[in-house]
Design goal:
The protein has 376 residues and is α/β, with parallel strands linked by helices. The protein has helices at 5-22, 29-38, 65-68, 70-87, 101-112, 127-136, 223-238, 254-257, 294-303, 314-320, 323-328, 332-342, 344-348; strands at 27-28, 91-95, 119-123, 144-147, 156-161, 170-175, 178-186, 196-202, 217-221, 243-252, 268-271, 274-276, 287-289, 292-293, 307-313, 351-357. Strands 2, 3, 4, 5, 10, 14, 15 and 16 form an eight-stranded mixed sheet that branches. Helix 6 links the parallel strand 3 (119-123) and strand 4.
Length: 376
């Protein structure tokens, strides 16, 4: 049952204001973002509101690649199958499985490819999305398992589609040459109906590279995302066989992420298929994301002992795995939808793919041509 948006927002704001009070009046943005997205029962990914879908009429807020075209998961399955064989493993791990569409596509195609999976493991913080996933994946029975916390070790192939962008980030603001961390404070209701405002405080934190120029500059650092990659590496390397991991998301290498012209940062919100840049409004009712600094993620994996298999655009990755051939054999309407996965002005260029492996380097098919690892 859907929660009334007005009562949900009121309860969410009450929780946020209490957290601000407990934090001596200033809540770092990463803590605010974590609450807005994951606060039990109230946060965006923890409440009953619809989220995923191809059209606003469905009540959804945005569309992801698996919702856009079933060819996405079917094509990605080619890489998963190769990685399972290369690592000698028989488990798949998906983080942030959304509606379950990608899991369904992967499991269906892996069956057709003759892969014998021991289990398909889903790690998702959202209990409401878990229920939707269970309904979607009923046909696969006990092969699909849900976990609410990290195991001590894991082995197999890890998949994360639009997971890293939903991890809380810290906001840094260079103001008149001095770096500040941006946080959230209580505000007069007359100035802001939600009673929230920004406040910057001087900090010793710095981005990994200083943006060129002397102008004011707002940006993000991503310690939580990097810690996630390091934790994943630790568990993969602690297992007997290890494995591989593939992350698909929108973002840039470090040199582009901290480009002088990107002075407004990358934090964005999504609601009813519209984007805005104000996370302090409609808290709990809309998604909050930040583009991924893929250099930072790659270094986090390398520092923890993983090898980078490759880094490239989503378009090149999917084309390397045979998407064009699948499109050619599909009806016109399906081809048109799949084209958005690789079109430069849609998902093709903005979305990137980063791959890791635990042991001896092997040539991942998705990075066979157009690998951009040298640009990380």
């Amino acid at each position: 049952m859907m929660t009334d948006p007005t009562s949900l927002t009121s309860a969410m704001l009450a929780r946020v204001h209490k957290a601000i009070l407990l934090a001596d009046g200033w809540l770092p943005f990463d803590q605010f973002m974590a609450m807005a997205l994951y606060e039990p029962g109230l946060g965006y990914y923890a409440n009953q509101q619809p989220k995923f879908g191809s059209m606003p009429l469905s009540g959804s807020d945005f569309v992801t690649a698996p919702e856009l075209s079933p060819l996405f998961g079917a094509t990605l399955a080619q890489q998963v199958a190769q990685a399972l064989k290369a690592t000698g493993t028989d488990e798949v791990w998906e983080f942030g499985a959304g509606s379950g569409a990608l899991a369904h596509q992967l499991l269906t195609e892996l069956q057709q490819l003759g892969c014998r999976l021991k289990s398909y493991n889903i790690m998702d913080l959202s209990s409401t999305l878990k229920a939707r996933q269970q309904a979607k994946l009923t046909e696969f029975g006990d092969q699909v398992q849900w976990l609410s916390q990290w195991p001590d070790t894991l082995q197999g192939v890890v998949v994360g589609n639009e997971v890293l962008d939903a991890m809380p980030v810290k906001l840094l603001h260079r103001l008149q040459g001095v770096w500040h961390e941006r946080g959230v404070v209580a505000a007069d209701l007359a100035d802001n109906p939600d009673g929230l405002a920004w406040e910057d405080r001087p900090t010793s934190l710095r981005p990994p590279m200083e943006p060129v120029g002397e102008h004011n500059y707002l940006t993000e650092i991503q310690p939580q995302g990097e810690a996630f990659v390091a934790s994943l590496a630790e568990r993969l390397l602690a297992s007997e066989k290890g494995g591989a991991a593939f992350f698909l998301d929108y973002g840039f290498p470090e040199s582009e992420f901290f480009h002088p012209e990107r002075h407004m940062g990358t934090v964005m919100c999504h609601q009813a298929h519209k984007a805005d840049a104000n996370p302090l409004a409609a808290v709990g009712l809309k998604d909050i994301t930040a583009h991924v600094n893929f250099t930072g993620m790659a270094l986090a994996g390398q520092d923890a002992g993983l090898q980078v298999l490759g880094y490239t655009s989503q378009a090149r990755f999917l084309l390397n795995l045979g998407l064009a051939e699948r499109m050619a054999a599909s009806p016109l309407a399906e081809r048109a939808q799949a084209m958005r996965l690789i079109s430069e002005h849609e998902m093709g260029e903005l979305f990137k793919v980063l791959g890791f492996a635990t042991h001896a380097h092997w040539q991942a098919q998705g990075f066979a041509a157009g690998d951009r690892s040298h640009r990380l």
